[in-house]
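In this supplementary section we document a worked example of the pipeline. Step one takes a protein sequence of length 283 as its only input; no multiple sequence alignment statistics are reported here. Step two produces a three-dimensional model, which step three serialises into structure tokens for compact storage. The input and output of this example are shown verbatim.
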Amino acid sequence: MGNRGMEELIPLVNRLQDALSSVGQSCSLHLPQIAVVGGQSAGKSSVLENFVGRDFLPRGSGIVTRRPLILQLLSATMEYGEFLHCKGKKFTDFDEIRKEIETETRRLTGSNKGISPVPINLRIHSPHVLNLTLVDLPGITKVPVGDQPADIEYQIRDMIMQYICKENCLILAVTPANTDLANSDALKLAKDVDPQGQRTIGVITKLDLMDEGTDAREILENRLLPLRRGYIGVVNRSQKDIDGKKDIKAALLAEEKFFLSHPAYKHMAERMGTPYLQRTLNQ
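The serialised model returned by step three reads:
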């Protein structure tokens, strides 16, 4: 259903990258990667968790992603995760995966809110995923909090730039629908490195949280700030859903129902939602 040649190439290059990193070499073979870029609380983590169908990312207020997470999704019959820094250990409990990400983040960044450009590599094998390699990056922030360095905004920008300036990096620019698109940090950064919009896909989250009587139809129809690859709308679980452990399968059904029944979006419902986004990225 996806891109056949790519499907066969990804596992091969993954093996190559592992072999090289185990002897301390970096792999200069730049495979297409998808960098997930957006402001804090834009819904990046939820988008990634919906791809996997599991809760496995640390959550909280403020800056939660403090190191790049290179997430390799591999279609397989068994469901488990493995980290490059825990050779040979298979994690079948996704809560443990979250704890391991938190522990490994703290190991390099301490318990304050500092950041580090050294990535964490996580590979998830699952029957529910399509082969994709995604990079989850820290949310763009403006104001340092706690013990964060005063130049945290520039540190994060630099880190994001290292990934998105590569020609073969697809930029997933995540912006919440209840903010002004013209001020989207993700779209601004994407425009800096991809002025023609050749490799940027807009993802609009929080469509269900827009003020009554307003909608994002103009954006999603690609008329407001046009991108060559357009925009895909998604509806993630709310914080209340997450706290109440709402199942992701149920959330995806609710998302589908939202688009099919919404007067402003039902004419394009088949081009909206997480499963459509996943297929688009895979291709």
